[in-house]
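Kindly review this record before class:
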Amino acid sequence: MKFIASILLKTLVVASVFSLAACTPKYDWREVRGENATYVIALPSKPTTFTRTIDLNGTPVSMTMVAAEVEGVTFAVGSAELPDATQAQVSLSAMKTAMVNNIGGKIRQEKVLTMAQSPYAAGKVAVTEVEASGPAANGQSRILFGRFVAKEKRVYQVVVLGAEKGLKRDTVDTFFSSFKFN
């Protein structure tokens, strides 16, 4: 009888562990604020931050990227400051083209949306949203969802990149809708 009780207890413990593991959320959304840029966004895991110099339409700028990865899907927001608001607007096209070229991709869809300028100021800013696909090293297709926006002298790119099969649009929408200006 002790042997059966011991096996039953071990089975219950193993089942409980698997049950708890099944309840662990795939995405652990956390709010992140831009250090030098005035935005807030939800990232699905602990982010890393790095800064590098990029060329935006002939102007070298320091772009700070904050990124997180979950199961091969990268969620990132990048921001850079240009000398003036006109250059920021003009640089958006270069930023979008560079991002699509980084994956060797082609744009499938592109549309212009608007978003609130901030919770404290009236007005809206234009947002260009793209969906692009490109090849991955393993022969599968990668998909890129990106939003590009300029506000005053700053430019922003909000990007989700991963294997096309493993990426759900509702996850992308959750990420995109969390991006707000302070």
About this structure: The radius of gyration is 21 Å. The CA atoms of residues 57 and 91 lie 6 Å apart.
